[in-house]
Amino acid sequence: MVTMYDVAARAGLSIGTVSRFVNARGYVGPVSSEKIRRAIDELGFVPNTAARSLTTKRSGLIGFVTSDLANPFTAELVQGLQEEAILEGYCVVTASTGRDEQRTLQTLAALRGHQLDGLIMSPQESPAVDEYLRHAAHEGLPVVRVGAAREPMEADLVASDTYSGGRSAMSHLHDLGHRRIAYVGAHRQAESRRQAYLDAVESIGLPVESALVCEGEPNREGGVLAGARLLEMADPPTAVFAANDLIALGVLHAAYRRQLRVPDDLSVVGFDDSEVARHSVPPLTTVAQPKQELGRYAARLLLDRVTGRRDSEAVERLLSCELVVRDSTAPI
């Protein structure tokens, strides 16, 4: 059985330093913390959370609440979150609430009833949920938001720079010669991507046509429906920028139904770089978000709050996105 002494030996640190880190009972510098995390990972050390909870008064549980746990983006984010949490002996309790405001509020209340040490939350389209989180943060519950926020609150935020990612997608299509570019969004989600599209169209010097901006469900079916509307136009677009990869796959399917070839007849760009984008036919050009790193960074922010390693004002961190060019885009 691997013990803290084994971790200390592997990390080249004292048992006292390792104990402070594992039990979250004092400051451990970032260099030493990284050595301990690496040793824990290499040795497979599992802290005794039951014993720790008696001394720290913590449950060893952190919550993650999202509107769509089945989304490929969310699945990869959770993987990074869990990997980081387990290094410090924490268990992640996940919950998916759809876009149901009442269900979300009930879930948050239930999780807090289990004495969570902290909460990580993906964006919700609900002022009531925002107010609940603001109240929870005021009461001392560490809260980290992942993704764009509706409005400021006293909580840490980690997100991708999706606006810059959207501009890079539009620049790519413009450089390929496309001038009639449509956007398929997801109602009130992905607002920064929509704004990137609108700003890019304006900077190119093209008129903004409302018919080229479609909103629907953030899934494949939403993309199929929006794609069908766009491709039925008398003057259809030559390219489509979709708010996520699932929507983009739906647009690909809509093109297939009309016997259009991608990218010869229509170029399509997605967003996220989920696994489905890598294996679609054709492989999807997309904007990659650092999904696992978002999860790891969110967990790190939260656990630094929980353990007292950080007691500063709320911070915001934007991680870069990257355009990944595959086979779904081509010159016009």
**Count the strands?**
12
Instruction: Tell me the β content.
Output: 15-25%
CATH level-1 class of the largest domain: Alpha Beta
Low-confidence stretches: none
Mean pLDDT: 90
Q: List the helices and strands in order.
A: HHHHEHEHEHEEHEHEHEHEHEHEE
First-to-last CA distance = 62 Å
Total helical segments: 13
Shape: elongated
Strand order of the largest sheet: 2-1-3-4-5-11
Overall SS class: alpha/beta
Measured as a percent range, the helix fraction is 40-55%
Query: Rg to the nearest angstrom?
Result: 22 Å
What is this structure's SSE topology?
Blueprint: H1 4-11, H2 15-23, H3 30-43, H4 49-56, E1 61-66, H5 72-87, E2 91-96, H6 101-113, E3 118-121, H7 127-138, E4 143-146, E5 156-160, H8 162-175, E6 181-185, H9 191-204, E7 213-215, H10 220-231, E8 239-242, H11 245-257, E9 267-272, H12 275-278, E10 285-288, H13 291-306, E11 316-319, E12 322-324
Parallel strand pairs: 1-2, 1-3, 3-4, 4-5, 5-11, 6-7, 6-8, 8-9, 9-10
Antiparallel strand pairs: 10-12
Helix pairs in contact: 1-2, 1-3, 5-13, 8-9, 10-11
GO molecular function: DNA-binding transcription factor activity; transcription cis-regulatory region binding
Protein name: LacI family transcriptional regulator
Organism: Microbacterium immunditiarum
